[in-house]
Amino acid sequence: MAQRLALRRLLSLTPRGPLAPPGRTFGTSVGRRNTFNVQDGSDFQDRVVNSPKPIVVDFHAQWCGPCKILGPRLEKMVAKQEGKVLMAKVDIDDHTDLAIEYEVSAVPTVLAMKNGDVVDKFVGIKDEDQLEAFLKKLIGA
């Protein structure tokens, strides 16, 4: 009986309004301001290719175990750069055309882009020291 009452209280606190569209992330943490999910090809063109800042592009998939390890680690390292670099996340299952265009043959694949050009790339997991070196090379620090 007590469990049912606790469950009812919990459910009554759960918001029941409309949810954000899939793929859209609304957050206020510092890391999230530097990271965004690519919505489609034109979004990629506008926010990645035409970006005045260097961009790290994380090609990943929901089913990819290594991606689930690398993604948060990379987001943390991008946040440490204090806005000098941004991070775009591209789900290869949703954006197969972009994966093909950028020759992604395995995930996770991470591209470093500057002025719309790919200047560096790696495939697989890296530790924080390697990610820091990758980012510093991209921003020229």
From TrEMBL:
Ranges of residues in domain Thioredoxin: 14-140
Top-rank taxon, per record: Eukaryota
PROSITE patterns for the chain: THIOREDOXIN_1 (PS00194), THIOREDOXIN_2 (PS51352)
Xref: Pfam families: Thioredoxin
One GO CC term on file: mitochondrion
Keyword Transmembrane included in the entry's annotation: no
Alphabetic keyword roster: Disulfide bond, Electron transport, Redox-active center, Transport
Any Gene Ontology biological process: cell redox homeostasis
Entry-linked InterPro entries: Thioredoxin, Thioredoxin-like_sf, Thioredoxin_CS, Thioredoxin_domain
Keyword Lyase included in the entry's annotation: no
Gene Ontology terms for molecular function: protein-disulfide reductase activity
UniProt cross-references to PANTHER family, sorted A to Z: THIOREDOXIN, MITOCHONDRIAL (PTHR43601)
Family of the protein in this entry: Belongs to the thioredoxin family.
Protein name: Thioredoxin, mitochondrial
Native source organism of the sequence: Smithornis capensis
Source lineage: Eukaryota, Metazoa, Chordata, Craniata, Vertebrata
